[in-house]
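Sequence, please.
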């Protein structure tokens, strides 16, 4: 039986793969479905403490799916501004804005045509400035995505390189090489794209260029001084406009070994984490090379020239011992902890990851980071209830039916996992919609998919659209309050009861749990250490924090004794007989 969907805004999907951009202006805006007084602005933490980010809660906004102010079906910068009171009322410290730059949308905006402007479909620089101003008024910091490994093929530099021809100075900013074979008809190496297929694309004059992602995303050559200088300019451009920090996309890929002859990798050609583990650290030709750290030490001089210094966090899919190098105070300061996201609902794995992550961050002079969902992975309200060993892609291809998912249990685990994460020392990164308990929209029909992974892999991998479906703000309307019209991806009818309107002020709702937890976290969270409680049972995580407040999570399938103490907050109902129910977290005073 198929899942009913609201009809989506077909024209809003234009612009992908070079189609004409959407341009359907409207003077209609969507009112906030839950009118409430502006929250009291939070203290401007960075004005008092330049290390505000060490314990922050950062909320990721995927702008195309957050709020649509002009009714064209695609989220925009004004739509973000209109919803900032939601974030301030939620209690987060900062928002991280995924790419909003001019883009062909070959990879959801991560193919950037101009690093110092706003995509006209999403707004203007003035709109961006207004958003930053309003965020700061509400006490929210603003972090923006930076995509330095590759540009869009529409970037002026790449267009110049195509026109200039082989051996030109313009091509030296990218990675162009002659092909192999009698007529250069074979790629220069066997390197594979992260999205599938060869990492090389041939152009009309016979040369090939490197793209570790889609062919629409040519890789820069970071040994070129003009590339380095231009990104220093970009860092200053956004910092001068009030941006408080940067999330660095694919931070481990910038430096490459391009000495001739380029070497094949055989079984390791895709450059995944398994390949990195089989090669000597720092020796892979395009991932996690030691030279990449010179780039970030240079960036740190730019970031530290501001008062307060600008923050940065690395997206580096590398083993933990290597990842912390990106997070030192001399480089970016933080790095995402994907081992935590990948640990699943397993007490032993989670405890090991938590212990190792805190220790590694402390040794690097950084703070730990924690994340459960983002724009690239299955939402944790669905992922955490999949049986161990489940292939996420196979589950998505089945429309979420094989294996079937217990949505109620998934939500229980998601809520428990969130309270566990928020009790940990360091920074927590939330993904838009998780405060509503949104599940993955696994049942999206293939004909509406926008993620390039679907086409790039020959319809083998379904991609990431299921976690990028626009948010529901109201119970009704053509896109549940996302905008005045439809949405660029269809929303299931079940979104109505997940909406902000349906949960606002409702005791026990996931939205109110997040609001309560974040408010309480501000009062409780101090220091960057924890102490594991001896004697915790199998499947139980139990640790104490500053002044003895305590977090206990039951990941087992049976109730366990509830420790003594004042119950400050629970992710769900506890047993009446002094037991902690399965899939439940409590904070105790």
């Amino acid at each position: 039986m198929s899942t009913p969907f609201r009809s989506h805004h077909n024209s809003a999907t234009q612009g992908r793969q070079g189609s004409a951009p959407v341009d359907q202006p409207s003077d209609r805006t969507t009112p906030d479905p839950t009118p409430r007084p502006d929250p009291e602005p939070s203290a401007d933490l960075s004005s008092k403490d330049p290390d505000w980010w060490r314990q922050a809660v950062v909320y990721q906004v995927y702008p195309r799916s957050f709020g649509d102010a002009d009714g064209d079906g695609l989220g925009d910068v004004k739509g973000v501004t209109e919803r900032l009171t939601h974030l301030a009322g939620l209690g987060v410290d900062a928002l991280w804005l995924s790419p909003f730059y001019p883009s062909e949308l070959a990879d959801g905006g991560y193919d950037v045509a101009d690093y110092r402007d706003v995509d006209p479909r999403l707004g203007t620089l003035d709109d961006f400035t207004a958003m930053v101003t309003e965020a700061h008024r509400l006490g929210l910091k603003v972090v923006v995505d930076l995509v330095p490994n590759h540009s869009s093929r529409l970037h002026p530099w790449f267009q110049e390189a195509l026109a200039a021809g082989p051996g030109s100075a313009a091509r030296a900013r990218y990675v162009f090489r002659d092909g192999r074979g009698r007529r250069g008809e074979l790629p220069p190496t066997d390197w594979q794209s992260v999205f599938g297929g060869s990492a090389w694309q041939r152009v009309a004059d016979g040369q090939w260029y490197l793209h570790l992602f889609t062919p629409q995303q040519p890789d820069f050559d970071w040994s070129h001084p003009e590339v380095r200088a231009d990104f220093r300019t970009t860092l200053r451009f956004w910092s001068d406009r009030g941006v408080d920090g940067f999330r660095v996309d694919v931070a481990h890929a910038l430096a490459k070994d391009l000495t001739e002859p380029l070497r094949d990798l055989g079984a390791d050609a895709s450059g995944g984490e398994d390949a990195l583990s089989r090669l000597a650290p720092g020796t892979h030709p395009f991932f996690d090379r030691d030279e990449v750290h010179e780039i970030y030490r240079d960036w740190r001089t730019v970031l530290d020239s501001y008062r307060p210094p600008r923050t940065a966090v690395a997206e580096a899919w590398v083993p933990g011992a290597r990842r912390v190098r990106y997070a030192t105070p001399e480089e970016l300061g933080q790095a995402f902890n994907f081992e935590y996201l990948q640990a699943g609902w397993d007490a032993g794995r989670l405890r090991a990851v938590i212990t190792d992550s805190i220790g590694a961050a402390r040794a690097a002079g950084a703070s730990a980071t924690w994340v459960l969902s983002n724009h690239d992975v299955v939402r944790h309200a669905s992922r955490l209830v999949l049986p161990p060993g489940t292939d996420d892609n196979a589950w998505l291809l089945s429309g979420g039916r094989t294996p079937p998912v217990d949505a109620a249990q998934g939500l229980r685990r998601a809520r428990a996992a969130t309270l566990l994460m928020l009790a940990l020392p360091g920074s927590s990164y939330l993904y838009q919609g998780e405060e509503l308990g949104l599940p993955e929209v696994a049942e999206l029909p293939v004909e509406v998919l926008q993620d390039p992974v679907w086409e790039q892999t020959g319809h083998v991998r379904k991609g990431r659209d299921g976690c990028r479906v626009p948010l529901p703000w109201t119970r009704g309307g053509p896109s549940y309050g996302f905008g005045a019209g439809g949405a660029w991806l269809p929303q299931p009818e079940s979104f109505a009861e997940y909406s902000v309107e349906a949960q606002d002020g409702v005791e026990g709702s996931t939205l109110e749990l997040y609001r309560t937890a974040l408010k309480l976290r501000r009062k409780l969270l101090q220091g960057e250490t924890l102490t594991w409680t001896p004697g915790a049972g199998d499947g139980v995580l139990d640790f104490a924090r500053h002044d003895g407040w305590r977090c206990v999570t039951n990941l087992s399938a049976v109730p366990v004794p509830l420790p003594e103490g004042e119950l400050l907050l629970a992710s769900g109902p506890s047993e009446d007989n002094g037991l902690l129910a399965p899939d439940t977290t409590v904070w105790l005073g």
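The two ends are 47 Å apart (CA to CA).
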